[in-house]
Amino acid sequence: MKRIHFLLLFLLVQLSLRAQFNRGVQWTEDGNGYRRIENKEIVQYSLPDLQKTVLISAKQLTPAGKSEPLTVRSYEFSEDGRKALIYTNTARVWRYDTRGDYWVLDLDKNTLTQVGKGRPVSSLMFAKFSPDGKKVAYVSERNIFAEDLATGKITPLTKDGTTRLINGTFDWVYEEEFDCRDGFRWSPDSRNIAYWQIDATKIRNFLMINNTDSTYAFNVPVEYPKVGERPSPYKIGVVSASGGATKWMSTPGDPGNTYIPRMEWASANELVLEQLNRKQNQAKCLYADVKTGRTTEFYADSDDAWVETKSSYSWADSPAGWDWLNGGKEFLWMSEKDGWRHLYRVSRDGKTEKCLTVGGYDVIGIVRIDEKNNYAYFMASPDNATQTYLFRVRLDGSGKAERMSPASQVGSHRYDISPNGAWASHSFSNANTAPMNEWLRLPDHKALKESDDITAKLAAQTSAKKKVEFFRIKTEDGTELDGWMVKPDNFDPTKKYPIVFSVYGEPASSTVMDRWGTGRNGLYIGDMAKDGYIYASVDNRGTPSPKGRAWRKAIYRKIGIVNIRDLAMGAKTLFAQNAFIDTSRVAVHGWSGGGSSTLNLLFQYPDLFKTGIAVAAVADQLSYDNIYQERYMGIPQENREDFVSGSPLSHAKNLRPTQNLLYIHGTGDDNVHYQNAEKLVNELIKYNKQFQFMPYPNRSHGIYEGEGTSRHLNTLFTKFLKEHCPPGAK
Question: From CA 321, how far away is CA 592, in angstroms rounded?
């Protein structure tokens, strides 16, 4: 995962998995029903009556000679609905289980047949039906195959794939930073397959060391382009589904100094590509003629800092897909060109465009494009950046955006809207209200079942004290920050209490959101409020909060500077406004980017922060990957001083004897390498700075593998905090 805040990890992973594998709702083609996996079967519910029908029984999912049905990880139906592709026996690749086995269930013949027989177990990736349902294509061991379902014939479409020459999927950094995993696309006429080829042969391996799983230690290599290193060159190729030579597209520029995060079919004979320059502040849209390979630029977007890609937004169909309108004559595009993130309708030739979401607010994400009824449904929060609400706007550009979420439901919403725009799965929560779920009729936003009606449930709730309190403060720099605070139980404003800050601080995530889970600490054993702690967080400039481009891009080339000052000045303002905070007992903690912020706050503002617990931090910004760091910081060959000045390593000498630091890192972290920990340790040793250090052998960025790991980590966190920032009133 990107260097995300630990408390958000679970939620973000679940969102990503849902988009990747459709484990939740899968809408029927007409939008009047949905499918799901239930009790080892695939069932369908009709709307609005919610009547259940078993589409595929456990018996149908049981292979011949086996007594148990397949464990269905995900599934898809062919376009005619007569075949189902079942994904099972999965294995993890870096972050998600994108490897596994696939089976095809022919509903007419009632036969269950494994796809890719003869390939290694759990080696197939991203299998999908051709549009005509006659073939299935998949990646296995970095090559692409097409299998004829009638004959069982398997045709290798590429043969040159290796661990470093990658066909149909991606290297580590494309997956991590662009959410690119599935790297091939069927043509609309089922005749061809377009795919990425990533050449990682020139990317150096970062060698992790495993000291525990054998008598002799061994290296675990990860092809990992550090910031300042050139990207893996790419090619975009088109190959016949029957096999043969690949036709390579002639993309402009140096493929080893640019990126292509998006590629889709524009028609049966044409591809559409999005190409980014190395700094990721210029985006070009290209058409590629699949017969000649010639590419033509037709649209461009740019930013003084960086251009967001589709993977950065919450989008209904995941980062894949190009959103065509009007029979392919127009498409949708998201841009911050007027200072806010807005949705634009653009002509196919790129010469005319119209902003659909006019106003001083950000579009947070697209939920559904309902072209038939002339609406785009999207999430936004014009008045409170900590919350999210559903809006819709006309696709023809007439009229203003209309809020759909009820005014009585104050907090954060999630929707999955049917293709026909008539129904939705809806969930709601806020920091003080546990998640509620309902099925809705749109556009009146009315619950299908009275017993699930969220509006009625909220109205029936008795008024209770809000445990998580939100606030806004203005720092001495004139910057207005959102924040939240949880006060101790039996709070007495005449007494003084220790405060613990939770931080992240970087462009990948925000910590101040009015949704369930905010105000809770997943590392602390027990109840912080009950034990007598104030728990708090503030949201600095540079986070992805919907506060406009200027807010988000203020951090460009200033990670470790602007965000850290905002967090520190936010704390300082909070101290000045609340006499009940004991400024001699101030702690801060964070994970990954939040670990970096924790270190920088301790080192740069030692007068404010006394105790810090940093996990898996980037101590040296020159050690992280090229796509992330160069997007937000530039290229170090041009502005190395920015990387150095923003790195905790440069400020470690400022740690005071009166401060307390606990640093934690997994030695098997393939994301933020353990190298960061050893560099930091060396720097602290150099200046005779005393601290506590905990390495977790072979644990990854999440530090969860191995028996007892989570319990040990939680115990360590809690014990250190209580010893060095004692709880309770004084």
Answer: 30
In angstroms, the CA 471 to CA 270 distance is 52
Please give the pLDDT value at position 23: 39
Q: Measuring CA to CA, which residue among 183, 189, 111, 202 is closest to residue 140?
A: 183
CB 540 within 8 A of CB 570: yes
Beta strand 534-539 pairing with 497-502? parallel
* pTM, full prediction: 0.94
> What Cα–Cα distance (Å) separates residue 20 from each residue in 97, 101, 508?
10, 16, 19
**DSSP codes joined into one string, 153-209:** -EEES-----SSEEESS--HHHHHHH-----EEE-TTSSEEEEEEEE-TTSPEEEEE
SS3 687: coil
> In terms of Cα–Cα distance, which of 172, 153, 164 is closest to 199?
164
What does DSSP say about strands 324-325 and 270-277: parallel, antiparallel, or unpaired? unpaired
How far is it, in rounded angstroms, from Cα 493 to Cα 10?
35
Taking phi over 0 as left and psi of -120 to 50 as alpha, with beta for the rest, 393 belongs to beta
Q: Which residue has the tokens 């209580």?
A: 722
Give the mean model confidence (pLDDT) for residues 265-288. Answer: 98
What digits encode the pLDDT tens for the residues 647-674?
999 999 999 999 999 999 999 999 999 9
